[in-house]
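User: Here's a chain of 346 residues. Predict its fold as tokens.
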Amino acid sequence: MPPSAPRPTLEAVAARAGVSRATVSRVVNGGAGVRGPLVARVRAAVEELGYVPNQAARTLVTRRNGAIAVVVAEPESRFFTDPFFAQQVRGISRELAAHDNQLVLLLTGGGADHERVGRYLTGGHVDGALIFSLHADDSLPVIARKAGVPTVIGGRPTWPDPDARRRTLYVDCDNRGGARDAVRRLLALGRQRIVHIAGPLDQPASVDRLDGFRDVLPGVGAPMIAEGDFTPEGGARAMERLLERSPDLDGVFAASDVMASGALRVLRSRGRRVPDDVAVVGFDDMVSVAEWTDPPLTTVRQDIEEMGRLMAQLLLHALESESDPDGLPALSSIITPTRLVVRDSA
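Assistant: Prediction complete.
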């Protein structure tokens, strides 16, 4: 079609398919009640004419924007340097794209950003929200609920209201069980002075991994645990503190691969051989980190990309259940399994 030619209209598609304009509208906008042969004729006419639905008109009919907000409770400096977020957003993006939905990325670094996100969600720009990397005092879930936006959370919710927790859809991995596997691996290697580099303890994943560590080593005291921040620098600082407190440590469980990479750097600078002197286990199995540390990192694998995909899938199902509550099974949250991946560090 030449560039100057007018855009095909709904009426032109109806004339080509030999059906009413209303039938074309229902097919184009995903409505029900149109017989299979008519659907095929309309779709063929859409293809032949190169018809593209007007998004504004489509929104009026479907009350959907075809857009999902992905809200990450971290500043840009963290989001764009941690490979965890890239993997999770990739899984989300692929699932949304497969269902013809756009991804709108919103990052937050403080209270002012929360206000901005709240205004955006309340403005009716998106059909739902996926929120992850929440901290204990984070108001984002409350903001999303007040905006009336269907929401799925990445990570186990910890807010005090038990009814709100029960009604919250979320996707998480078996953080506690994975941590237990990590510590058992170190014990199986004969390690006796095992320490833990925890993640930020205002995040449920970090708390669950610390609880898993304590499940296997209930007698370990506070000096054997140091809190990091899910960065290489935070892992290095925590490793320095642990070496000061326990110079004879011989095993390290780090709550993330990124922090484990910082710990490995400190151990090497102190002349501690890994795994001969100190065995190290991480968590995540981010290949871009775990296979490139020196030595390659034994770690607990969680399928980060799959968790992102499941978050998007759960939200899309929730949106469908709003329009057809009897047509879908009951929705429930998802806990994905973890597994130990053994490499050279332990």
